[in-house]
Amino acid sequence: MTEQLRFSVLGPVRAWRGADEVDLGSPQQRSVLAVLLLAEGAQVSLSELIDAVWGTRAPASASGTLRTYVHRLRKVLDPFGEAVSSVLRSVGRGYQLTVSPDDVDLGRFQRLLERAESAHEAGNVKEAAEHLRESLDLWQGSALSGVEGDYADAQRHRLGEQRLSAEAMLMWAEIELGSHVQAAGALVGLVRDHPLDERFRELLMLALYRSGRQAAALATYREAQLLLADELGVDPGPGLQAMHQRVLRADGDLLAPATPARTEPVEAREEGTGAATPAQLPARLPAFVGRDAELSQASGLVRNGDTGVSVVTGMAGVGKTAFAVHWARQVADDFPDGQIFLNLRGFDPGGPPVSSERALRTVLEALGANAGKLPQDVDALAALHRTRLAGKRVLLLLDNARDAAQVRPLLPGAPGCLVIVTSRHQMAGLVAVDGALPVHLDVLSEPEARHFLARRLGQSRTAAEPEAVTDIVALCSRLPLALAITAARAATRTAMPLTTLARELHDSVGGLDAFRSGDAAADVRAAFSCSYHALSPGAARLFRLLALHPGPDTALTAAASLAGFPVPHTRHLLADLIQAHLVEERSPGRFALHDLLRAYASELVDATETREERDAARLRLLNHCLHSADNARQFFRSGRDDIDLLPVLPGVHVEEFGGAGGAEAAKRWFDVEHATLVECIGLASADPRHDAYTWRLAWVTKQYLDRQSRWSEVERTHRVALTAVLRLGDPIGEACIRRGLARATATLGRVEEAQAHMARSVELFIATGDPAISGEAHRQAGWLAERLGDIPGALGHAERALELSREGGDAATTARSLNAVGWYHALLGQYEQALVHCRQALPLHRAASDVCGSADTHDSIGYAHHQLGQYEQAVDAYREAIARYRSIDVLYGSADTLGRLGDTYRSMGRSGDARAAWNEALDVFDTLGHRRAEEIRTRIGQADG
Q: Percentages helix, strand, coil for the chain, rounded to the nearest 5?
């Protein structure tokens, strides 16, 4: 190629061959070129290109389409070259664009910034200003303009921050050169365009003061103070406050040149998404170093063929998770049936470890099990887990385990799978009893630690300051987590000498109280502190408050509610925290703190926020959970079960579930959030001031847990709620909670306790004087009377419920009461009366969109037809009931009706169909651990006999 190629990304993505501009084709083809240019000569894999161009919306043909784009780019960039010698070459499983940095405007921009830094350090402000002006002249609008997608947005933000830093440096240089009047005019525009960037306001105050406009400088500060309070709820930063004080006292030194503090941009980071087959391993660290001996030892497990269990142990922050992920990524292809990652939270100061039951449910759901059909006890879950893994090649990475007892139920029962466990404990029991291979990790050696920093910061930068690197390695105690955080900070402040960073680390040395592993030299607080103090005030406050969230991770709206920030602003702050490696986005839209960072954030929130501020944040979180759960449960509720909610608090953002997919979205939300809701009930119950939240959260969560047959969780949350509501002296709350307890304890077989709760609940509901509420209470009492075998008593309650619901004009409760009356008539042998009442209920169910109530009524109609010998009608009704139950995941109802459908088939002489229906029912009852399973098993045995 004889003609020089030039490229531009600081504006539209463009290219020139000599004096002629090259037609780069479609926007997506330009995206491919942009990604390769930003890689600065490094290889970019095919998968990375696909993620950058399409994100999570990549078509099935993405690989082929992308190769077409590369082919076309190669043709227009180097029309006479060969593929192997082209400027755009295939390298391994990716592509590489080989161009000189001088041929890309971004390369020239960065080199001019470096020259400006050098001139500044040498005291040559005029030369620094010239380089800065030349660098900013390269910009032709927003970076990558015309290129769309998450990757482009992130790169635009990153490059835009570099541009703003250059603008700030130039404004300072202009002021130092005496052009403060002209600088003030430019800074007014920069402040208008970037109102929350305190650098420009500080410089504007200085320029105005040097122009003899002290009052205008003070007014600039007051404007910033009001804006920051309104937008973020924070005060101006230390730099702006110091400038205000100096202007206020007419500090004469401000009239002399003085080097201001500078802030450099933060690098952005993107993460991918998973696939349908479990592929949950976190991303591999790009700068993983060392551990060769440990990797060789661990990999022997896979080479041996039948695999097994390995325990990776070591002190907190030593890199156990990074090592385990790196190893798992190396061998992932050997486990085509899935790779599952699970944080067991064994040493999480923010909450208890994940129970074996919860861990088993999570793994089974990842393997495709229906959450609602899972057994209730740990032994049955473990047995099902072993069954699911038998004959499979699955990799389980169990991170942050507490002890062997937590892990043992998760171990496979047959060879073929690999389990990698990480823990701060030695897990000697797992090694001795279960034959686990121990892999112990110590801190990095000094050469490995130096290599680690060189990989993160670049060989040239670390080689230029070897003594500073030695100091950083020592101050970080060669602990990978501390080294990673420190390197991230250094990487985002390219102008800061490493000696300055080392000095700041030294000045911040302390001890992380929650991190005690027996090695006093391993102290990460200094590293955490450096990253934390580099945050904007808003990001720092959000980081602190995330420690108050009791769940394993948090959604965007929950984080925004916790802090009381707007959602878009919170999204940007979370992006800042991810960039600083203080928060992880473990799955799309789910944000979490590492356990050590949670400990650090807990210290900060206790030390920085007042008790009133912490209480207010917790209250906003509880308020968010209450209203979001109430919105979601509208798709699951049945009968008259509304309660008076507390008002939505200022700063709280509530999840909405409107539109055609609302029901599915609400279920997904509960699937993800129900563990956090249960934790929030515990959080609220710890403070009597939040009793009103405790019982309401239990009530709005009950419908989902009941549908999922999680009666033990209903009982646990309602017992806590009962204590709270009794303290409050709230009769409606007590009535609701006792009714929930009655249903849970009755379903779990404790009918006498259930009877006492139900009697008190009915008494309290009747005392309200509301006929519809009283009618629903009687209907529920009828349900319990049936459980106790008192069918006449149940009918009496149902008839009273029907009378009251009609009086109250509540169509949904009237329909359910009609079905209850019909059902109890059927149980008493009065089948025609049963059909009359049940048929009256069906149109009311349809009008109320009560699918579950309609299913119950079709089941009652089927039973009455069966008893009258009208088997075909019975089969039709039962099938209608089963279809409706299944459409809303009501497991017990579908199994109960399947049992009766089998009885009808038997009466028709269709023994094969009967056995099929009973076997389906048995499968559900067995997974629920319900005593009805034995009854169905007996029927099957009698039919086979």
A: 65, 5, 30
CA distance 537 to 540: 5
* Range 72-76 contact pairs with CB under 8 angstroms and sequence separation of 24 or more: 72/25, 72/29, 73/24, 73/25, 73/29, 73/32, 73/33, 76/15, 76/22, 76/23, 76/24, 76/25
Whole-structure pTM over 0.70, yes or no? no
Sheet holding 88-91, edge to edge: 44-45, 94-97, 88-91
Residue closest to 169 by CA, chosen among 249, 109, 246, 103: 109
> Of 894, 945, 943, 944, which is closest to residue 921 (Cα–Cα)?
894
Position 352, amino acid: P
The H or E element spanning position 397 is strand 395-401
Name the DSSP class of 645: P
Q: Is the pLDDT of residue 343 over 90?
A: no
Render pLDDT for 32-73 as a digit per residue (tens, 0 to 9): 898 888 888 888 888 888 888 887 777 777 777 888 888 888
Element (H, E) at 856: helix 851-867
Tokens 């600081």 identify what position? 10
pLDDT reported for residue 723: 94
Find where tokens 């008259």 sit.
640
**Cα separation of 51 and 58, whole Å?**
7
CB 364, CB 374: distance < 8 Å: yes
Residue 941 CB burial class (10 angstroms; 0-12, 13-18, ≥19): exposed
State whether residue 6 is helix, strand or coil: strand
Name the residue type at position 400. Answer: N
- C-alpha 817, offset from chain centre: 42
Question: Quick one: DSSP state of residue 606?
Answer: H
| Res 310 pLDDT > 50 | yes
Place of tokens 């470890």: 353
DSSP letters for 327-363: HHHHHGGG-TT-EEEEE--TT-TTSPPPPHHHHHHHH
All residues at 6 or more sequence positions from 810 whose CB lies less than 8 Å from its CB, including other chains: 640, 772, 775, 776
Q: Distance between CA 278 and CA 272 in Å, rounded?
A: 14
d(CA 214, CA 245) in angstroms, rounded, equals 12
Pick from 188, 190, 183: nearest CA to 163: 190
Q: Is 296 exposed, middle or buried (0-12, 13-18, 19+ CB in 10 A)?
A: exposed
Pairwise CA distance, residues 275 & 247, whole Å? 58
Q: How many CA atoms lie within 13 A of 889 on its CB side?
A: 20
Phi, psi of 590 (to 5 degrees): -120, 120
- Residue among 436, 473, 422 at smallest CA distance from 314: 422
Tell me the CB-side half-sphere exposure of residue 735, using CA atoms within 13 A. 21
Give the C-alpha separation, 159 to 106, whole Å.
Answer: 9
CA torsion through residues 866, 868, 870, 876, sign? negative
Cα 244 to Cα 189, 238, 260, 505: the distances in Å are: 20, 10, 14, 28
Provide the pairing of β-strand 14-17 with 20-21.
antiparallel
Beta-strand pair 437-440/339-343: unpaired
**Residue 453 and residue 469: Cα distance in Å, rounded?**
8
pLDDT band at 716 (very low <50, low <70, confident <90, very high): very high
Q: How many CA atoms lie within 13 A of 333 on its CB side?
A: 1
Residues of the chain above pLDDT 90, percent: 24
Once rounded to an integer, what is the mean pLDDT over residues 759-769? 86
d(CA 731, CA 769) in angstroms, rounded, equals 13
- Contacts within 8 Å (CB) and 24+ apart, 114-117: 116/166, 116/169, 117/495
What does the pLDDT read at residue 648?
92
* pLDDT of 304: 61
